[in-house]
Amino acid sequence: MPNLEQTKRCVIADDVRASREILRSWLCDCQFECVLAADGDEAWEAIQREPPDLLITDIEMPNCCGLKLLQRVRADPSPQIHSIPVVMITSLHDGQIEQTIERLGGNGLLAKPLDQYSTYAIVLAVLAAAGTDQEKLIVSDPNGKISGDGLVSPTFRRLLKPLFSSDS
Hints:
- The chain is of the alpha/beta class.
- The protein has one domain: Rossmann fold (3-Layer(aba) Sandwich), CATH 3.40.50.2300.
- It contains seven helices and six strands; from the N terminus they run βαβαβααβαβαβα.
- Strands 2-1-3-4-5-6 form a six-stranded parallel sheet, with helices on both faces.
- β5 (108-111), α6 (116-129) and β6 (138-140) form a beta-alpha-beta unit.
- It is globular, with a radius of gyration of 15 Å.
């Protein structure tokens, strides 16, 4: 179990309570103070109140999905907010997820079901790369489930539509 030198603050956004709780448990073991949010809107409010050192967000959530949340973070004029390292988590199996997250400015990607040591590895790698010229998305995909055949799934297509349409 990794141990960080000082307490860091993390916002965890996931509509599945069990996922939020397990991530909080793992990160508390690493000296993180965690704020939990059930969707992207709740996470955005928490980020605006007190910008965290890290954001971990699920991609597929009601109200405001993780992709929209990532887009909001990167578009914010405050350097304290737009530079927050962001780790995305997903159970979607789609060939375009990595490219889309990288395009939107994500820093890490974890595949569900979550694994404690893969989570630690991604969190530590993302935090170590924060503030450097490292621009490559850090991906943990122990089961080879994120990469697909390059086709965009209907679920992922639904999540992408409001992000890249001219109406948003």
